[in-house]
Specification:
The complex is a heterodimer of chains A (about 325) and B (about 50).
Chain A: H1 52-55, H2 64-67, E1 70-77, E2 83-97, E3 100-110, E4 115-122, E5 127-136, E6 139-150, E7 154-164, E8 169-179, E9 184-195, E10 198-210, E11 214-221, E12 224-232, E13 237-246, E14 251-262, E15 267-274, E16 278-286, E17 292-301, E18 306-315
Antiparallel strand pairs in A: 1-2, 1-18, 2-3, 3-4, 4-5, 5-6, 6-7, 7-8, 8-9, 9-10, 10-11, 11-12, 12-13, 13-14, 14-15, 15-16, 16-17, 17-18
Chain B: H1 13-50
The chains are: A mainly beta (about 325), B mainly alpha (about 50).
Chain lengths: ~325, ~50
């Protein structure tokens, strides 16, 4: 839903294929989980989740911190200043499906005082609202309010970001995603921004084709192209490729990634290589019976002679 | 020696504003038409299936 909020994941930076935390109560229904009353009978899911599979989000065996109510994360890294994060999650009692409970409150604060938080609530069967904010040290950076409506065959959403009545500035994002068949979904995004003396709008067209074990998604707009392909080769192995072309910056990045789940050893290994010749890898291991998750991450760029590594420990 | 130059053409702010507004309206119109077409597409596909 037009994520104006740029919430950075609190775990070591060179994590490929990771992103916003997945919260147990707020697991989004998988595409195709509609009630079957409408034409196609398959809700295409949320617009924000179109490339999620390639980003490695929404996995059932995600990071330990994201699956727990409270967590502490300590990151020691060669990249920048090491940091400490504390996160808390509240999941309400309103259960609408076996995997979804509302309201959900998620927050994360680090040792510099920067904080981001979200409140998600399902008002009715189809309407979901989200309020999010982010502070950087002592300053409010972003805040946004989203509303999403899910019908059996389509999803429509509208988001308002950083509204300032005095200055007359705001960002308004509108999404629409229609399932044309159980496999094919088409949609679009409209972004309108306004600030004193300037306003503009930009639209993007999106298409997604999903079958049993693979998903291909493409966004095309004036600002560029974003395409991804995710293939689940087996229960343990997933591979994905992503292409991001930014017309304004004249930059293109192609990333090839894979993920290996080893449930018996409570380990997840992710690796990626991109067209800038940056090779990244992450190893996550849960340490039962202790509520700990250990993450080791490393990134190397042979061309730029850069090597970065770090590790994180999540309690909770 | 003096060099005479024509003053730099300053963009007319009112005209620029109008142009920006017109571009926004066109984009919104196109997006609305696209969404309407998508809303109609399942119905049309169903009708085509019946033929």
């Amino acid at each position: 839903m037009g994520n104006v909020l740029a919430a950075a994941p609190p775990v070591p930076p060179p994590f490929p294929m990771t992103g916003m935390p997945v919260v147990p109560g707020a697991v989004t229904p998988t595409p195709g989980a509609g009630t079957g009353k409408d034409t196609a009978g398959h809700n295409p899911g949320s617009f924000d989740e179109l490339h999620r599979k390639c980003k490695g989000e929404g996995r059932p065996g995600g990071l330990g911190r994201t699956m727990s109510r409270n967590y502490h994360t300590v990151n020691l890294s060669t990249i920048g200043i090491s940091n400490y994060h504390f996160g808390a999650t509240y999941v309400g009692m309103k259960q609408i499906s076996p995997t979804e409970c509302f309201p959900v409150c998620i927050s994360d604060i680090d040792n510099s005082g920067s904080m981001n938080g979200q409140v998600i609530h399902q008002l009715t069967d189809g309407v979901r609202v989200k309020a999010a904010f982010q502070t950087q040290k002592s300053r409010f950076v972003t805040w946004q309010v989203d509303t999403e409506y899910r019908a059996p065959s389509y999803t429509a959403a509208i988001a308002l970001g950083n509204p300032d009545v005095l200055l007359g500035s705001a960002v308004l994002v509108s999404h629409y995603l229609q399932a044309l068949s159980p496999s094919l979904s088409l949609g679009g995004e409209l972004v309108y921004h306004r600030r004193p003396g300037e306003e503009g709008a930009m639209s993007t067209i999106v298409a997604r084709y999903a079958v049993n074990n693979w998903v291909a998604t493409m966004n095309i707009g004036a600002s560029g192209v974003h395409a991804s392909y995710h293939h689940k080769a087996s229960e343990q192995i997933q591979v994905g490729v992503e292409l991001e072309a930014n017309a304004r910056l004249q930059e293109t990045l192609c990333t090839l990634g894979y993920q290996v789940d080893l449930p018996r050893t409570n380990m997840v290994f992710r690796g990626s290589v991109d067209s800038n010749w940056t090779v990244s890898s992450v190893l996550e291991k849960k340490l039962p019976p202790l509520p700990l998750t250990l993450a080791l991450a490393a990134t190397i760029n042979h061309r730029k002679h850069k090597f970065q590594c770090g590790f994180g420990l999540t309690i909770g | 020696m003096y060099r005479l130059e024509a003053p730099l053409a300053r963009p007319d702010s009112e005209e620029t504003r109008k142009k920006m507004r017109a571009e926004v309206l066109v984009t919104v119109r196109n997006f609305t038409l696209y969404v309407l077409a998508l809303r109609l597409a399942p119905f049309l596909l169903r009708q085509l299936d019946k033929i």
